[in-house]
Design a protein that fits this description.
The chain has 172 residues and is mainly alpha-helical. It is 66% helix and 9% strand. It contains seven helices and two strands; from the N terminus they run αααααββαα. It has a two-stranded antiparallel ribbon with strand order 1-2. The termini are far apart.
Length: 172
Amino acid sequence: MTPTPAKKQQGTKTRQQAEAEDLALDTDLGWAIRMVSSAFRNVATESVADLPGGARAYLVLVALAGGEPPSQLALAKEVSLDRTVMTYLLDDLEAHGLVTRRPDPRDRRARQVLITDTGRTRLGEVRESLAAAEARLLTDLDEDDAAQLRTLLSRVARTAQRESTAPEKTAC
């Protein structure tokens, strides 16, 4: 049985609708990332405003709170900051008593960065403020969805970080 012209047009219209839905902003990854990034930047900026260095300082304190003290260079790579920017940021954080630097016992040419007790206290305060801001942003998600979003975004962020630090591939 051959479809009638009306049925063909209806099939085409459905395909056009499907294509339009595929191109809708609310299904576009770039749009979603931009919207979330912009909203998060706004709420996060307020939360970290009292830290010298703002969001960058927050990332440094989070990285330092986790374990073995890294070298300045390793820390700069971990949080994706230029090493010169990292030096100035650490100068500010050290002046405010949030971090300290010492020679690395394994390589005395390098300097380890350590978070101070004051730095841990400030990090805790900022994390509370940031958690409240994040909760406002994630208000439409239940706990499981929010946890899954964090997990998936962390995976994508690690991939993005690897891509941004990988040597550029050039054609021969």
